[in-house]
Amino acid sequence: MKNRLSRAVWKRVVVILLVCAPFSAFSQYWQAGGFLGITNYSGDLTQKRVDMRYTRYAIGAHVKRDINRYLTLRAGLTYGRIAGADSTNTDTMLLKRNLSFRSPVFEAQVGVEINFLDLDEKKITPYIHGGIGYYSFYPTTKDANGNTVKLRPLSTEGQGMSQYPTRKPYNIRQFSIPFGAGVKLLLTDNWIVGFEFGLRKTFTDYLDDVSLTYIDRNSLLRSRGQQAVNFAYRGDEVTGNHVTPGTYPTDGTTRGSDKYNDWYMFTGLTLSYRFGGGNGYGGHWKKQKASDCPRFF
Predict the structure, then answer these.
(1) What are the E-state strand segments in 202-262?
(2) Which residues, in sequence order, are bridge partners of residue 59?
(3) Can you give the residue ranges of the DUF6089 domain (predicted)?
């Protein structure tokens, strides 16, 4: 008798959960908006983890789908620029290397946001986000006359040269892992403003075209020409900083470090307009009364 009663109670609990879930859930709605902020880079041309002197702008757009109060799906496109240069470092060896780069970064990403508070109830919530990204980059530099020079075709570290078969040309379109944190503020029932910081873990050490060692000067000259030699090593262009110009290093001399891959990051403000929903006053995320749920006891 007791077991039958227990089974009957559990059946009613399951029925309540299945039937009442739509009543106690929140109306899903969409968000569409934009991002305006800055881009930074961390790699072989920054003596610090991040050199804020090479901060560049970033702009983007996004769409979001709120599944419930605490879970949001997101997708977005972001464009930014990254840069770095040895000339602003303090280490003598880096000053003598005298390399520099700049690159556009265009990223598409999808992911999730986990909100810690009910935004409609508290009007503000911190959140964390993560997902997967697909981005493109293309490192360039400037010559002494200010002309833009594309670095990848020069094979500055022997990429794609038969003399260095293990050094393959790096892909300029790759996957990344975006993750970070932010805070949202509900301005009105429809408008949400936020501040977000997002790191991008990459799987390349060539955002800046620097990773391994110098290759033989004559081999590079024969394979890629004088311009490749000029931009593989620029220590002979050094002026000031109490550093004397150098000569092209011997084959195998350290040029960069492949111990860690390069990173990039976006930081800035978001503004979103939300629409959809439908339950309750204002049409957004208003829980229906418990009396709307059928009674079984």
Answers:
(1) none
(2) 36, 79
(3) 13-209
Output DSSP code: residue 213: B
Tell me which residue has tokens 């002197």. 53
Q: Identify whether the C-beta of residue 133 lies closer than 8 Å to the C-beta of residue 77.
A: no
Tokens at 184, concatenated: 């949202």
State the CATH architecture for 28-282: Beta Barrel (2.40)
Distance in angstroms (rounded) separating the CA atoms of residues 76 and 133: 9
The residue with tokens 């873990």 is: 201
Question: What is the tens place of the pLDDT at every residue in 223-240?
Answer: 999 999 999 999 888 876
CA distances from 263 to 2, 62, 129, 207, 266 (A): 62, 22, 17, 8, 11
The pLDDT assigned to 92 comes to 85
Start-to-end C-alpha separation, the chain: 19
Strand partners, 201: 177, 263
114 — phi, psi (to 5°)? -110, 110
Domain boundaries, the chain: 28-282
For the segment 192-224, what is each residue's pLDDT rounded down to a tens digit?
Answer: 999 999 999 999 999 999 999 999 999 999 999
Measured over all CA atoms, what is the biggest interatomic distance in the chain, rounded to whole angstroms? 95
